[in-house]
Amino acid sequence: MRLKSFEAKSMQEALKMVKETLGDEAIIVSTREEPSGWVRITAAVEQIAPPPEKHAGLPAEEPPRKVAAAAPDAEEKLDPDEITERITDILLKHRVPGAISEKIISAAALDGSGDPRRALAKGLARTFHFAPPDENSHAPLILVGPPGAGKTLMTAKLAAQSVMEGRRPLVVTTDINRAGAIEQLSAFLNILDLPLNTAEDPQALQALLKHAAGQEVIIDTGGLNPFDPQEMKYLAKLLASGNLRAALVMPAGMDAEEAAEMALTFDILGVKHLIATRLDFARRLGGILSAAAKTGLALGTASHTPQVAHGTIALTPLKLAELLMPAPAAAPAAQKRKA
């Protein structure tokens, strides 16, 4: 994939330059108006290898046999243009908005390792904020988000992680109206030998928190519509129940623009962290990146499996780069022997 930026006095002139230089197949990655009033367009186009030249009187050369490309981890060193192309391809595949892609690519270009995955990790580290919710903090952790995001399962996973590390957290749910919600979380906690506490309103939650002073607390909440003013008003009251650490739980695979708008609503209420779920089957992570970029919410904890035990991962820049740009699958042993 070839990436190129164009500047012109008007959008029409810039688009004409794109078409003349890259052709009709060019994909517009981003557009923006510069402080000077000019328009800047970044576009990408697939690079097609030219056909082999034919010489009169000579038989055409047999095309070379394809050899499997070595994985970037296998000490493969790429030049900066090749790295930019690979990262551009990946970000386009994941539907990352153009303005965010430009920041990542620009930062990745500063890496000199020759490894596209490490370069991508450097670009991510310079573009996003990475910081998991601090489990050593005495402030209770409250998980918020839209319906179906995976808050209850994440609550169980965090509780299991605490138990395996020798702590016994106080687990609370305010999700008392959804059918089966209490039973689902109770079933998980019974295995951990932890009781489930319920809080039917912000006042009840505040009372529970007073009795849990100094204890680790994990709070599950019901799914809320971020575009419903009344539901957001209720959430604001919940968050005012104490000195809470609020984390937005958001499933991967969402549309980038929709995810960003949703995250902005929670960000206004004081949410500081973004916990990504369903990384195990989401095909595109542009929604998660868009939400984090538009709000500044910290990435750090994520879910990559439906299992409760060992159900979370630390989302570092390198780990996120590996999820965006996974290493090629190893060839089966039988194929290696044939080779």
Model description:
The chain has 339 residues and is α/β, with parallel strands linked by helices. The longest helix is centred in the first third of the chain and has 14 residues, at 80-93. Helix 9 (256-268) links the parallel strand 8 (245-251) and strand 9. It contains twelve helices and eleven strands. The protein is 39% helix and 17% strand. The chain folds into two domains: 2-47 and 76-127, no CATH class; 141-324, P-loop containing nucleotide triphosphate hydrolases (Rossmann fold, 3-Layer(aba) Sandwich), CATH 3.40.50.300. It starts with a strand and ends with a helix. The model is unreliable at 53-62 and 64-74 (pLDDT under 50).
Summarize the structure.
This protein has 339 residues and is α/β, with parallel strands linked by helices.
Q: Share of helix among residues?
A: 25-40%
The portion of residues forming beta strands comes to 15-25%
Which structural class fits the helix and strand makeup?
alpha/beta
Low-confidence stretches: 53-62, 64-74
What would you call the shape? Answer: elongated
Task: Give keywords.
3-stranded antiparallel sheet, 2 domains, 11 strands, Rossmann fold, alpha/beta, 339 residues, 8-stranded mixed sheet, elongated
Spell out the blueprint of helices and strands.
Elements: E1 2-8, H1 11-22, E2 27-33, E3 39-45, H2 80-93, H3 98-108, H4 116-127, E4 141-144, H5 151-164, E5 170-173, H6 181-192, E6 196-198, H7 202-211, E7 217-220, H8 229-239, E8 245-251, H9 256-268, E9 273-277, H10 286-295, E10 298-303, E11 312-314, H11 317-324, H12 333-338
Parallel strand pairs: 4-7, 4-8, 5-6, 5-7, 8-9, 9-10
Antiparallel strand pairs: 1-3, 2-3, 10-11
Helix pairs in contact: 2-3, 2-4, 3-4, 4-11, 5-6, 7-8, 9-10
